[in-house]
Structure formats: C-alpha cells, structure tokens
Amino acid sequence: MAVSSRTAKVTLPTDEQILITREFDAPKHLVYKAYTTPDLVRRWWHAGRGEMTVCEIDLRVGGKWRYVMVTPDGTEVGFHGEYRELVPDERIVSTEVYEGVPGGDDDPALDTLTLIEADGRTTLTILMQLSNKQTRDMIIESGMEEGLQDALALLEQVAVSLR
Q1: How far apart (Å, rounded) are the C-alpha atoms in residues 110 and 143?
Q2: Would you say 50 and 42 are in contact if contact means Cβ atoms under 8 Å apart?
Q3: SS3 call for 126
Q4: What's the pLDDT score for residue 32?
Q5: pTM more than 0.85
Q6: How far is it, in rounded angstroms, from Cα 66 to Cα 111?
Q7: Which of 6, 95, 106, 153 can bridge 81 by disulfide, Cβ–Cβ 3.0-4.6 Å?
C-alpha cells in the first residue's frame, strides 16, 4: 500500500466552518480529474469503508451530484448536492447534504474546494460553510476526520496513478 505524502489538516476557522487542507504529490489537473470523474471517484470516495453503489456527477453549474456507499454491515451512507460554481482544475463550489439527517436539504453545507499547484504538487483546501455551530460540531464528532483522511489518501493514489 502506498504511503500518502501528507495528512489532511482539519481546522475550525469560525463557529460555522470546517477547513480541510492537504497537499498531494500530483499536479492540480490530475487531482481535479480524480475528484470529478465518476470512475475515478469510485476508487477513493468510500475511504476503504464499503462499496460505492452510486456515483452520479453532472459537472456543470446547476448540475447535481450524488454518492452512496454500502458499508460491510449493510448500512447505506449517501450524500448529494448541487454545483454552484466550477473553474476546471482550480475551484468547485457545491452544496452538500448528508442523507442520514432529516431535513438536510433545508440546511445544506456549502463546500468550496480550491486547488493550488506549486512545483508539481497540489494543495487542496475544502472550506465547509455551515449554518450553525451545532451542525459543525455534529460533523466533527461524527468521526468524519478519520474517513476523510483515508479518502484523501486514496484520492492521492488515484491522482498519482493518472500520470
């Protein structure tokens, strides 16, 4: 198993925000491709915790996305959202709803992903903007960071494999 070059740093800039930062040993166009191509997303999004059963990406402003995985114990975990802004190889702004929370569509997170490349390496940041501190804390306390670390390590492996 390949070792990831960096681990993600998760910080809480405000009571309504989660900021994820991670460096990848790959140029930004390959990180973007691995992040937005369904066949490639299927290789990393599950974080090694199950089988991805749905990977729908309509990559355009106003387009929708939906990811679902089934864990080994049969639990279905789904997320969906809508693309608000797309700058290929640089920025994605989208909503994100965890389907396990009733009424989630009324209070989606707004995620801003940014890719910055230097010397063939890419720094990915994701700023999650939430409506309140309780939602932010619930996400942090859900164990999200552990799965995130594993998913981003797999994302790096996928991006590197595209060279």
Answers
A1: 20
A2: no
A3: strand
A4: 98
A5: yes
A6: 14
A7: 95
4 or 128: which leads in pLDDT: 128
The structure tokens listed for 87 are 């700058």
Residue 89 CA to residue 92 CA, distance in Å, equals: 9
Q: In this structure, are residues 49 and 22 in contact, taking their beta carbons and an 8 Å threshold?
A: no
pLDDT at position 34 is 98
Quickly state the pLDDT bin for 2 (edges 50, 70, 90): very low
Please determine, for residue 148, whether its predicted confidence score (pLDDT) is greater than 50: yes
**Which range of residues forms the domain containing residue 39?**
9-161
Domain count, the chain: 1
Running DSSP on this structure, what letter comes out for residue 104?
A: G
- Tell me, yes or no, whether 4 lies in a domain: no
What CATH number does residue 156 fall under?
A: 3.30.530.20
Q: Per-residue pLDDT for 52 more than 80?
A: yes
SS3 62: coil
User: Using one digit for the tens of pLDDT, what is the confidence trace for 78-99?
Assistant: 999 999 999 999 999 999 999 9
**In contact, 50 and 70? CB cutoff 8 Å:** yes
Domain assignment present for residue 59? The answer is: yes
For residues 92 and 32, give the distance between their C-alpha atoms in angstroms, rounded to a whole number. Answer: 9
